[in-house]
Amino acid sequence: MPETQSLQPTFVSFPRGALSGQGEVVLVDREAGVVVTDATPFHPVDHTWPDQPGDSGVLSVGGDRVVVTEAVMAALGDDGAFAVGTDIPVKRGADGWTWLVAHRIEGDIPASVTVGATAVLEVDAARRGGLSRGHTACHLASLALDAALADLWHKETGVDPLGNPDFEGRANQTSFIHADGSVDEYRLGKSLRKAGFDSAGFAESLQARQDRINELLAGWVAAGGESRIDVEGPSITDRRTWRSVLPGGEVGFLCGGTHVRSLQAFASITVALDLSDPQLLVMTTSVTPA
Questions:
Q1: 64-77/97-105 β-pairing
Q2: Are residues 173 and 47 in the same domain?
Q3: For the segment 253-288, what is each residue's pLDDT rounded down to a tens digit?
Q4: Which of 51, 46, 50, 29 is nearest to 105 (CA)?
């Protein structure tokens, strides 16, 4: 059983860009190799939609410094059950659970890391920066994709933040963000065709669509608008929204990840579309940092 005390949801400072901070150790699970503090700058990977990997870095207590291989979601049930990462049996925010950020520790957890100790937490800044650029670019690419495919819809459908038909929302099935890029997969099946999307027309004009996406992205990067995260509260369970200012207006998505502060962080964002499987579009997004 983990060493613990009465807990509240973890307070997080990564939405404002924090890379370091202090926290009181509130739970230690030596068997699972994780440490939970009451507050952390680390962004955790989401167990239900693991698009952005968790932060890595260092946790220090006294003179002991240990490597944090990845921050992950954890949850403590009202019945005392403690679950980490993909072992959590419910979605984030479900009633009956206290939601936490756990730090996976490389090797054994030192004896000094006990409940009540003060920990200094330091995030790997270079890795965070690459993932933040990758995540912001992923959102921008999805908006450009929607815009480039707008004329292929022949029925009314939901719209994205720019008012274009929401291809991303209807067709995306996986998204993986990495340093300075992302890979998204979209299912082009029967249900999408029934919803009014011209899959055959898309396949016939694939290169032109890709060129249009990259043209839009180049314009947005050149404009260098603001990018930010708006939060409803300080805890890991509070809603967070990514927003950015584009030439067509301000856009926003509910998003639990990290992002750049300005599109001036990019020298370029480009995408490549792959339709080798006519039922599956793969969009690879690549960033050149400024």
A1: antiparallel
A2: no
A3: 999 999 999 999 999 999 999 999 999 999 999 999
A4: 29
Residue in 31, 23, 153, 155 with CA at minimum distance from that of residue 101? 23
| The two three-digit tokens of residue 117, written as one number | 């100790």
Q: The domain containing residue 283 runs over which residues?
A: 127-289
Cα–Cα distance for residue pair 97/8, rounded to 1 Å: 10
3-state secondary structure of 147: helix
Each residue's pLDDT tens digit, 30-86: 999 999 999 999 999 999 999 999 999 999 999 999 999 999 999 999 998 999 999
In CATH, what number is assigned to the domain containing residue 175? 3.30.980.10
Residue 40 is encoded by which pair of tokens? 């952390």
Question: pTM for the full model?
Answer: 0.96
Domain harbouring 116, CATH code: 2.40.30.130
For residues 188 and 278, the answer to whether their CB atoms sit within 8 Å is yes
Give the separation between CA 173 and CA 45, rounded to whole angstroms: 18
* Closest to 62 in 3D by CA, of 19, 123, 113, 122: 113
Structurally, the chain folds into a number of domains equal to 2
Tokens linked to 130: 């690459």
CB atoms within 10 A of CB 274: 14
Minimal CA–CA distance to 104: which of 51, 36, 39, 158?
36
Q: Would you say 108 and 180 are in contact if contact means Cβ atoms under 8 Å apart?
A: no
Instruction: Give the integer Cα–Cα distance in Å for 248 and 94.
Output: 37
- Which residue has 């924090």 as its token pair? 18
